[in-house]
Amino acid sequence: MRARGLSKHFGSLKAVDDLDLTVHRRQVYGFLGPNGSGKSTSIRMLCGLLTPTAGEIEVLGLAIPQQAEVLRQHIGYMTQQFSLFTDLTVRENLEFLAAVQNMPAKKARSRVDELLTEYHFEGRANQLAGTMSGGQKQRLALAGAIIHKPELLFLDEPTSAVDPESRRDFWEKLFELTDAGTTILVSTHYMDEAERCHRLAILDRGRLVADGSPAELTGDLDGSTLLVETDRQRQAKRALLPIPGVISAAQIGNSLRVLIDGERVDQHQIEEVLAREGLDARVGPVTPSLEDVFVAVTHQQARSDALAKESGP
C-alpha cells in the first residue's frame, strides 16, 4: 500500500494533511493518535470509501478510488462499533457475510465451520449475536471481516470497547493472520497496542509526525527522558514545568517522568533547579517509551505550527 500527498478537507478543516505512507506486505502497520487526528479518515480513503481532496493512493496494485470496487473483493474492514446483526445468530451472521462475498454454498459452509472452530464459537453457533459479551462480539466481527480470506485487513480502533484480556487474545489472532500472509493496518490510541505493531505512524491533527518501528521511534529519543525520584513529586513538577526545554513531567507512582528537549536543557540543569527548591531528588536517564515519543513529536509539531503562525503574513 502506498499513498503520496494524501489530503482530505471538510470545508476549512484539514482532516488529513499531505500524508505520505508506505505499508509492506505481511506487516501489522499501526496508526497511533488521539481522536480527531485523522486515523479513521485516512483508513476510509485507503480502502476506497472516501474520495481524497488531493493525493495518490495505490493499494494491492490498484489505483484508489478509481478501482475501489475491485479492491473490495480483496480487503476486509472492521470498525470500532459492532456492525453485524444483533438479531441473527453467530452462524447466520457468518453465512450472510459469505453470501455478500458471493461464496459458493459448499465453500461457504466449510469456511463458516472453519471460523466457528478457529474463533472458539463451537458452542455458540446458534446464540444471538446481540447477547454476547464485548470480547465475543469483537471476535465475531473479526471472523466476519476475514471470511473471504482478504489479502489486506483494515481495522479502525477495533478494541476500544473490550477488556485487556480480550485485547490480548485479539492481537494473537492478528499475528496468526500476518503469519498466514495477510497485511493489516490498524488504528489505535492504546500505547501497549502500538508497541505490538511492526511499524507505526503517529498522526496529529491530520499530519504524519513520526513513522518507523517502535524500536526506531524510541531510539530517536535516547537521552531525552529523565526519571526524577523524590517524595515531593508535585512540588518537583511545579518547579520543572516552567523550564524552557522541559516538554512534560508526568507523575508515575513515586517518581516523575520528565521529557526534555536535549538542545535546550540537560540533566545537570534539572538537578540544579531541584536543589534550589530544596528538594532531595535523584535524577537519571530512563529508557524512552512510545508515550514519550508521542508527547515529543506532537509537541514539536505544535511548536513548529506556532512559529509558522508567528512568522506568517
Give a description of the structure.
- The protein contains 11 helices and 14 strands.
- The strands form 3 sheets. It has a 6-stranded mixed beta sheet, sandwiched between helices. Strands 2-1-4-5 form a 4-stranded antiparallel beta sheet.
- A hairpin with a 2-residue loop joins strand 9 and strand 10.
- Keywords: ATP-binding, Nucleotide-binding.
- It comes from Microbulbifer hydrolyticus.
Layout of secondary structure:
Layout: E1 2-10, E2 13-22, E3 28-32, H1 39-46, E4 54-59, E5 62-64, H2 68-71, E6 75-78, H3 90-100, H4 105-118, H5 134-145, E7 152-156, H6 164-179, E8 183-188, H7 191-194, E9 199-204, E10 207-212, H8 214-219, E11 225-229, H9 233-240, E12 246-252, E13 255-260, H10 267-276, E14 282-285, H11 290-311
Parallel strand pairs: 3-8, 3-9, 6-7, 7-8
Antiparallel strand pairs: 1-2, 1-4, 4-5, 9-10, 11-13, 11-14, 12-13
GO molecular function, one term: ATP binding
Protein name: ATP-binding cassette domain-containing protein
Keywords: ATP-binding, Nucleotide-binding
